[in-house]
Structure formats: structure tokens, C-alpha cells
DNA sequence: GATGATTGTGAAACTGATTTCATAATTAAT
DNA sequence: ATTAATTATGAAATCAGTTTCACAATCATC
């Protein structure tokens, strides 16, 4: 590969001048500029990012942490992030935390050594203080997941409202015995906590108490959903509707319900979350709460890039709105 | 961040010695070694990858090109690749080619500037010569997709056999009017070509001719599958079975067939490819050809790492075997 | 005891860029 | 016409590592 010295030699100029041309510095005569461009062209020159990085420049690489890429919600999110990054000439270093603290920390460390310019976290495992302590090495943006009370920049949806909308919809449809199934722990911080609030708020309006036996926590996969349905099936007193934390769980519930002989939504109404492709694929199609995944990705990258350029932000905590999608499962 | 000079100073030794300790060079006394470790520990020192990279060392980063991460086959593949990479202390720079040549080339260029040590390509857009020309900058491994007649290292499945198995299964079940639906072009190179061969081979054994009107090319998504089914529905003379290039297309066909009032497999038998989660989710569940995705990811990373270390390879072209999974759609 | 090989260490060069500092050549202002 | 400001360029320092080269010190061999 040609180096900046080669370009300097070929153009009969110094490395300094070449560097200035590359970086669009002022005070360079038009002729020399042309000379440099010509030499770069002929040599097929490309600046070495490692050398730039070393000199303290940015690397055009952002890190993205996801819990697991096989989860469609996250693969769609990463898709949006990668595309928006590419459009701004950035590359994406993708990393799966697998919901483990040590993996997450390993990746955050890349910020220290300037392997990435900034990081977008779509999930959070470590404690708030730990994550905030890394912000001194570079910008960290929370996307989708977030930490209550934190000042960190974040792009998220209004989960309280989302959960409220979903639950309200079930209540409006006449369901009164509503179960609740969440990905986190019921007392969790951030996203899940906000959802809980929305869920409870809707119930309060109808003066309904939560039935603790109908609360399922830490559920994520289709398989989890099937297990939930089995538990419900075994109950003496069953709910007539269930609010779930993702379309995958909802799908698992629907699938298992069918094979157990329950009718959806007559015996059990099910509402999903996310609006993934799967929601339309199963029968009956899932009512769900659509998350603006594409927009979340775009906004996240844009905000991170602004942070990198030290541009003033209109708002450090951006909230996107969700949409209730009514299909046949409720 | 502490630098190697800080460690040198703290330990009272030279940078050279510290570097030797870090890189496990021979001929260093035990005492000095201890001194260095102690200093590194106290300073929380971590070597700067950019500086190492610049000096011509490896970066512990591999690039992965996928056409589109939202395609479950590829998100499962990336999942496997990322995990195996992590286990060997490597990071993954993920990139979507979006099936576009220019994007692919953009990414291959990272090899030139040593941004990545090597690249795993799970899809191929450019011509063979172009891709091979990049191998002089670092190892490129083909995974899943491959180029006929090329010497490039590859991890793949025997697509000819896979397609043969699938088609044979349809024939054995008594179907004789078999349509064919592929992701590539029917005359394509590599993977798709091999599948065509297997498909034709099975037909030949039963002395059946291909019906050109029943060949669908360049189909990828669920949506594509639905469109294919609509076309079939409009035909005067319809096939009684269809071999597809992916479970997604197969799912689209099944979904649309149901809403058009066709019975699967009575009116039309459908066999998928990949064995993605979706195959078990739809009703009727898809018969399909299972690809060993996890193993492909593991083997690919292992082989690339061997190439990076210049280790001799048992085989540069590794072939994994597939498995016929019979469910209800055939 | 001289010679050669092995072991152990540091100074300095090197990787490929950017930036500081110095300086020359114009242009503008007094 | 002299001084000051602006424009334009290059030499050398710098970033944080690794590697080469030189040189001791220790050990083994004849």
C-alpha cells in the first residue's frame, strides 16, 4: 500500500502539505492541491486508519453492543444502525454481550484504547456507575434500553405509554383478567420498570388489581412463551388475556395454546411487543405494539455522530413514539 | 490511559524490555518479568491496538460480510462467528453488502489498510478475479457462498447433495411436477449452480424434464414467496411440489397458499432450505434441509485464524454435511 | 585462558499519519 | 517605504507500540 510519503514524493511536496490537502486545511494553493490529488489518484492512496487513530484522530468506527443478534428485534436494529453508519462513512464493530457483565465490560474497554470512537448500547448489564465511568473515554449512547435517572444520552421509546396503550386496548376489548409477561425482572430498572408503570396505570383506571400469580418474569424466547402457556393451562383460575414483552413470547404462547386446544383470542387474548415479521406470520396474527426500529437506529447513529463532533444537541434524551397494531389475537 | 513508556518508567526498565514481556519473547530474566507485570497491574495498562497495528502486527479483528443481517440465516451465522471469534479473543467488524458490488469492495478495502486481519465472506457479489486480487492483502475465507473452480479457502456444505436429497425426497413421496425456486440466477456460479445440478440429477434419475415455466429465480424473502405462490395459482397447469432456496420463501408460499385456499401438501408440497426457526413455526411445519450453521461459523473462524497464523491446513476447502428434516409440508 | 555461543538489556529506528514550529513569500495598512 | 498580517510550505516532533542493532554478561568448549 502506498503511504503518505509516497504521495509526497510523487507530487514533489512534503508530507505535511499532503496531509493538509487530505484534511481540507486552508491556505493551500490550488496547483499544489491538484498535484496532490493527482498523485493520490495514481497511487491509489488510502490513508492508514491505524496511523490516524494513533495520532488521536477518530477512526470512523462505532461499537454496537447487542445481547444477541439472533433476536430479530436486534438484528433489525443492527441493520438500521449499520446502514446509517455506512451512509456516514462509519463502520460497525458488532458485539454480543450475551447478557453477561464481563462480556459487556470487555467491549466497553475498546473505548479506552480508541478501537472505537463511540459505543451504542442496545442492552445494559452493568450498573449505572460502571457504565458512566466509561463515558470519560468517549461517548456512549443508550438505544432502546436505558437507565432511570441517568443523564446519559439516549434514544428510546416511551415504554410507559406503550405498555399503557397495549393494556388499555385489552381492557377496552373487555378483558379483565390480564396476565403480564416481561423480559426483565418485575422490579427492574429502566425499560421494564417503565412498562410495569404503564401496565399498572391502565389497570388502575379500571380499578383492577394485579394478580401476582399471573406475572411471568425473565421471559425472552418462543420457547419461554410455550412454557408460559403450559403454566397458564395448568392453572385453576386462568387469565383471559396476556400482555407480553415481545412478539416472540407472544408467538410461543399462541403456538402452544393452539396445540393445547385453546382458542385465541376467545380463550386467551394475546398482545405482543415490537411488531416483528413473526407477528404477521402466525395464525392468528398478533396484535402488538410497533417499535420504530428503523428510526431508532437512524437517530441513534445521528446522535452519536453529533456527540463525536461535539455538536450541541437539541435533546440528549430522545423519545420516539410507538403505535398500536391491532390484528386478530386480541 | 497508561502507555508502555509509563510501564517502563515505573518498572525502571526500557520500553523494549516491557514490549518483550508483553509479547512473551524469550531471554528475559524472571525478576524483570515480575517487575513489568507488577507495573502493568498497578497502572491498569493495556496496549494500544492502533500502535501495534501500525507496526504491522495483527489487530485481533476479523471482518464479516453478510448480504443482510435481518435474514435469519445470516444472523444465526454471524452469531456463531462472533461467539467463536470472541472465544479466541477476536472482534468482529460486521458489514452488510446489501448485495451491492461497491459496498463489498468498500469493505474488502479495509484489508488493505489493515483495519481487519482477515475477512469472512458469507456472500459474493464481485467477480472471482476481483476478490482473489484482494487476497494478497490478507486471508479471505468464503463461508456458505463459494466460487466454482477457485482455490480460495472455503467452508461450505455440499449443495449438490443437499438439493439432490431434497428433490429426491419429493420424488419419493410421489410428486412428479416439481417447480424450482432459487435465490440466485439459474445459470449462476457457485452455490446456486451446485444446487441446480443436484436438482437436475434427481429429476434425471426419474427421467423427468424440467418445466422452464416452473423455474423462479432471484427470490429471497417471505414476500417473494407469496408472489411466487400467486403466480402458481394463476397457472393453468400447476406443479404439485416446489423446491425452494430458503425457508423464508417456502414460508411465504405456504402462507399465501393458505389464504388462496390451497392445501399444503395435498395441493402443493413445499420443501424449504436452511431449517430456520420459522420452519417449525408455520402451519404446516416445513420439511427442509438443515444447514449446520453453528458449525459453519465455528469452522470458518478456526480456519481463518489458522490462515492468519500461517498454520498448515488439513484442507483448505471444507465441506459440511446437511440433513433432511421431514415435517408436514411434503 | 582465549574463543564462541547463549542470555539479557537498552538506545534508537521504524510504522504512517497529524501537528507544531519556523520561515518564506505575498498582500494590506500606515 | 516600512511594518504588520495573511498565505503557503516544509522540517521535525509526536502518537504508542515493535524490532533492529549494539553491547554486556554469563556459560561452555577447546
TrEMBL record, chains A, B:
Q: Which GO terms describe its molecular function?
A: DNA-binding transcription factor activity; transcription cis-regulatory region binding
Q: Which domain of life is it from?
A: Bacteria
Whether Transcription regulation counts among this entry's keywords is yes
Keywords of the record, alphabetical order, are: DNA-binding, Transcription, Transcription regulation
The record places domain HTH lacI-type at 2-56
Q: Which CDD domains match?
A: HTH_LacI, PBP1_CcpB-like
Ribosomal protein keyword on record? no
Q: Which Pfam families match?
A: LacI (PF00356), Peripla_BP_3 (PF13377)
Coiled-coil annotation: which residues? none
Instruction: Write the protein's name.
Output: Transcriptional regulator, LacI family
The taxonomic lineage of its organism, from the top, reads:
Bacteria, Bacillati, Bacillota, Bacilli, Bacillales
Amino acid at each position: 500500500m502506498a503511504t503518505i510519503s509516497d504521495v509526497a514524493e510523487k507530487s514533489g511536496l512534503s508530507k505535511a502539505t499532503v496531509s493538509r490537502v487530505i484534511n481540507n486545511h486552508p491556505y493551500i494553493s490550488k496547483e499544489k492541491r491538484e498535484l496532490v490529488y493527482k498523485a493520490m489518484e495514481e497511487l491509489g492512496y488510502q490513508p492508514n486508519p491505524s496511523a490516524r487513530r494513533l495520532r488521536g484522530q477518530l477512526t470512523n468506527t462505532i461499537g454496537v453492543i447487542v445481547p444477541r443478534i439472533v433476536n430479530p428485534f436486534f438484528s433489525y436494529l443492527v441493520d438500521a444502525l449499520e446502514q446509517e453508519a455506512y451512509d456516514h462513512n462509519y463502520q460497525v464493530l458488532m458485539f454480543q454481550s450475551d447478557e453477561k457483565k464481563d462480556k459487556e465490560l470487555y467491549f466497553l474497554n475498546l473505548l479506552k484504547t480508541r478501537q472505537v470512537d463511540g459505543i451504542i448500547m442496545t442492552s445494559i448489564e452493568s450498573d449505572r456507575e460502571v457504565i458512566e465511568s466509561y463515558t470519560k473515554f468517549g461517548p456512549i449512547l443508550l438505544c432502546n434500553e436505558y437507565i432511570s435517572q441517568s443523564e446519559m444520552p439516549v434514544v428510546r421509546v416511551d415504554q410507559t405509554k406503550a405498555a399503557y396503550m397495549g393494556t388499555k386496548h385489552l381492557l377496552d376489548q373487555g378483558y379483565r383478567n390480564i396476565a403480564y409477561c416481561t423480559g426483565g425482572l418485575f422490579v427492574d430498572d429502566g425499560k421494564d420498570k417503565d412498562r410495569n408503570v404503564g401496565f399498572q396505570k391502565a389497570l388502575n383506571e379500571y380499578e383492577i388489581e394485579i394478580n401476582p400469580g399471573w406475572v411471568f418474569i425473565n421471559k425472552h424466547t418462543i420457547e419461554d412463551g410455550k412454557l408460559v402457556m403450559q403454566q397458564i393451562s395448568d392453572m385453576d383460575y386462568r387469565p383471559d388475556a396476556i400482555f407480553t414483552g415481545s412478539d416472540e413470547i407472544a408467538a410461543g404462547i399462541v403456538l402452544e395454546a393452539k396445540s393445547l386446544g385453546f382458542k385465541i383470542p376467545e380463550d386467551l387474548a394475546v398482545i405482543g411487543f415490537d411488531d416483528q415479521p413473526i407477528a404477521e406470520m402466525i395464525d392468528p396474527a398478533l396484535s402488538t405494539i410497533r417499535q420504530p426500529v428503523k428510526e431508532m437506529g437512524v437517530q441513534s447513529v445521528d446522535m452519536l455522530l453529533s456527540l463525536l463532533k461535539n455538536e450541541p444537541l437539541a435533546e440528549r434524551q430522545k423519545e420516539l413514539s410507538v403505535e398500536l397494531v391491532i390484528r386478530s389475537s386480541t
